[in-house]
Design a protein that fits this description.
Elements: H1 14-30, E1 47-51, H2 57-69, E2 75-80, E3 94-97, E4 112-118, H3 129-139, E5 140-150, E6 156-157, H4 162-177, H5 184-195, E7 198-206, H6 214-235, H7 242-261, E8 267-276
Parallel strand pairs: 1-2, 1-4, 2-3, 4-5
Antiparallel strand pairs: 5-8, 6-8, 7-8
């Protein structure tokens, strides 16, 4: 098994698995149930990989969807830097530990029609994107596709909400301290074109198309405050100890809930970059 250093900034426990699954469900709703972008021909997908797969929920949903819309024998493989959140009963889906900044084993080269990547903004350093994209290119079949989904610094939008302003401040300080990019989708768009990907498209989805998404959006923001925000406060020296970070996060969640109850809401913006390698 590949030895890797876990760059994940969130805890690895059952609560985090629940957060990942809830986040997936919201992102699917935000994109109006677009698991695979319409520009990618589903009938041509027979081998599919998911990087930063977490619990494997995207692969599970995709396998069920394709079984209904385009029945065929398919191979599914999820990769993550840690096996801690892999499902205990994976069924027909395969899982492997893989650092995206390290080349994949030769058995995966030129193997996949579609490689899906989601939310590595808090794991990859800015100068690692080019290497990550090159490693993904190596496992794609000629003519294969990448679908890469990220949240950028403008993901949580509100001009009047001080909670969102504080999240932006914390992430800006934290990402700069750790050498990470707060404009992940723009970085991917730029680097993928430089390496030679064709038909690169950067698409923005937003939760404001459906007011019914507001409760889920508010819950996801609270979850981010209690996880990424709290951990970045301590990891990047914005507070002196973990206890203070936890207290600041709890206070911010309380403020967030009060503002939401007053109707001072936010909407959730999600970027998806679809790429084709010819």
């Amino acid at each position: 098994m590949q030895e890797v250093q876990d760059k994940y900034v969130f805890p690895r426990d059952s609560k985090e698995s629940e957060r990942l699954n809830a986040q997936h469900n919201l992102l699917v709703k935000v994109t109006q149930n677009t698991l695979i972008h319409p520009s990618i021909p589903k009938e041509q997908l027979f081998s599919i990989a998911d990087i930063a797969t977490g619990t494997g929920i995207w692969l599970d949903d995709v396998s069920k969807c394709l079984a209904q819309t385009s029945p065929a024998q398919r191979y599914y493989h999820g990769f993550d830097i840690s096996a801690d959140q892999f499902p205990k009963t994976p069924g027909k889906i395969h899982f492997s530990v893989q650092d995206l900044t390290v080349p994949f084993a030769q058995e995966h080269w030129n193997r996949y029609d579609l490689v899906h990547v989601r939310l590595v903004i808090a794991a990859l350093e800015e100068d690692e994107y080019q290497l990550a994209i090159a490693n993904i290119h190596a496992i794609l079949k000629p003519g294969g596709y990448i679908q890469w989904e990220e949240l950028d610094e403008e993901t949580y939008i509100s001009e009047t909400n001080p909670v969102i302003q504080e999240i932006h401040r914390c992430l800006a300080v934290g990402f700069e301290a750790e050498g990470k990019s707060s404009q992940a989708s723009a970085k991917i768009f730029e680097e993928s074109q430089a390496i030679g990907f064709l038909d690169v498209e950067r698409i923005c989805y937003s939760s404001d198309w459906n007011i019914d998404l507001r409760p889920d959006t508010e819950d996801r923001i609270a979850a981010i405050i209690g996880s990424l925000y709290q951990r970045l406060l301590f990891r990047t020296g914005q507070v002196l100890d973990e206890e203070t970070a936890a207290e600041k996060a709890a206070d911010l969640i309380d403020q967030h809930r009060r503002l939401c109850a007053q109707g001072i809401g936010v909407f959730y913006r999600h970027f998806k970059v679809s790429l084709c390698w010819a």
